[in-house]
Amino acid sequence: MSTVVQTRGPGVQAWLTLIVCEAKMVVRDTAGLVVPLLLPLLILVTGAQSAGDQVVADGLTALEAYVLPLVLTMVLATIGIINMPSFLAYYRRTGILRRLSATPASPVMVLVAQVVVSVAQAVVGLTLALAVAFLGFGAQRPVDLGAAVGVYLLAMAAMYAGGMIVAAVAPTPNSAVAIGLVTFFGLGALGGMFGGRSSLPEPLAAVGEWLPFGAAVEALAAAWIGSPVEPAHLISLGLTTLVGVVTAALFFRWD
Length: 255
Known about the structure:
Helix content is about 75%, strand content about 0%. The relative contact order is 0.14. It starts with 11 loop residues before the first helix and ends with a helix. By secondary structure, the chain is mainly α. α1 packs across α5, α3 (about 60-95) packs antiparallel against α9 and α9 (about 210-225) runs antiparallel to α10 (about 230-250). It has ten helices and two strands. The chain has helices at about 10-30, 30-50, 60-95, 95-100, 105-135, 145-170, 175-190, 200-210, 210-225, 230-250, and strands at about 55, 60.
């Protein structure tokens, strides 16, 4: 008579425990916690006053049309492209992912928990930036709130997918940080983080608009002022998400 042994996957409590552990790791990483929250706020505070005096259209100012979309994109990019890959590379380097692969708590759980914590951190950064902009500088809400939320979620997916590419190719935690920083500043520079794409040569400005950072800024700006969101920007964010997922599936190593 044979005995059938039923195996059960990790339950809700296991998932919650792992997410809490990931959150504690993020909180203990001072630079990784502070930079994504305070660097965008610094950009906001230094540019909000002058931008708030420049009316763009229908009573909306450069604060809503440029500064806020830029700041909110920075929050996503710093967390998705710099923070998350460094954590995953550290877990791989120290053998955490390899050991988890032999337990019911698979490495995929770590990835999901890291994404959940990263999303929570992005929500905190979003809330802080909007609170300062609305309460401190009188910013107005997006004209097309639904489109703005949709674009922000798509931009979040694109930035995290970009981070997965970094995590897939980086052999060590230090290299993940280095590659993430170079990628962040490269995308940011071409996407208008240092004075707007109009200050760039036309070919670079065109490239920057197609890359995920510039596409996110442009799409958010359009939704904020009530203009139609360009399909090209949505396609850029969607393609980045797809490429990131495929790259991670093909090249990400658990050990």
